[in-house]
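note to self: dont lose this again. the chain is below, predicted strucutre after it. 419 aa total, dont forget to put it in the shared folder this time
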Amino acid sequence: MSAEPAGPGADEQGEAARVSAARAAMVAGLEEAGGLRPGPVRDALLALQRERLMRQAYVRRSAPEEKPSRWDLLDWRVPADRDELLGLLYGGESVLIQHDGEPILGRSPGPRCGGAITSMSSTVGMTARLLQELDLQRGQRVLDIGTGAGVTAAVACWICGDGGVVTLDRDRHVTDAARTYLADLGHRPTAVTGPGEAGWPVRAPYQRVFVSYAVPRVPQAWVEQLAPRGRVLANVTGSSPSWPGLAVITKTPGGRIEGELRAVEFGHRPGHGFERIFISRAFLDRIKAGDGGRGFRSHQAPPPDEARAFWLAVDALMPGLVRNWSADYLVIGAPACGSWLTARPDGSGAWTVTVRGPRDIWDEIQNVAARWRAAGEPTSYRLHVDAQGEQWVSAASGHPELTWSLSRRPANTDAEEEG
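---
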């Protein structure tokens, strides 16, 4: 007896099973890597249908420094795009969702040339770690600044309930798309458009504030809109992408503000108008050639990469430096002036060092290292915020050897980028 043909829904069922398996594999990978533990965030990520929240996504087709850049917009409705799009959505990396500030709803898939990506969804691992740190609870009022694709808003709705969640983005196209796609998933947070640095006082105070982009300092509005026992999480960094910091701001039941600045391995990209420096391929080639560099041996070693709080202090106290993490030895450049440093252990306990340029980067590192050691080699810092909006960082032990102010320069921290 011949087998009966598959029913009309067999293809759809097979596709749904494939997507469900990819989602489960993503969550399992996060657990194996130690970035996700049992609890509401894990359950929310396991339930979140990312292919319905991010129905289209960009993939870059050009080399990193090729001009003009070339992109393809993949679409879940196009069968030929689904395999690659499934890998993007559940592979764990950032998902690029907007090009050159375009409307997101109603776009035609296909190639794009030139321009830049203006909104994205952050890496899943970083999002999961931060959401767990936020400690979301049912019934909390949450302000999600930087809507992006709406992933953090979706998780907040799933855990806390839609009624208390406000998601804010500077771009109305991002807001419109998130509102539409979240509603398709059954979530209806308050989705609003406006400058991120102003927060959203209409629904304040908030028990939790989550920020999906980096800022040079914590805007005062975020602190003022925080409820007693509330918490703000935001990446606070300088212009270098090499050594990010995470600000954790809490408000005591009595209304006192307490802050901590932690050095972290990964952080969000900067907000709109907050430019980040980088080392170009041409600069790396000059460093590799070593032309004009001054070489010497040193028995003073820099603190290891794992001493992230030290390197965070380097970024703050000696700004303008960028680490080349792709090298298997220490390579740091100062793009603004062309100074650079290479340093390799020579196996005898000493380091072979080469420096070039008006800045002596090796001397700068050793100077900060001495101050860091004098302060007790702190692994995190106190972040001080006073009523007048002044913000400064000090070693948690209170030693004066390691203190710096956070810039008051305009940050243009409109909500955007990565949620």
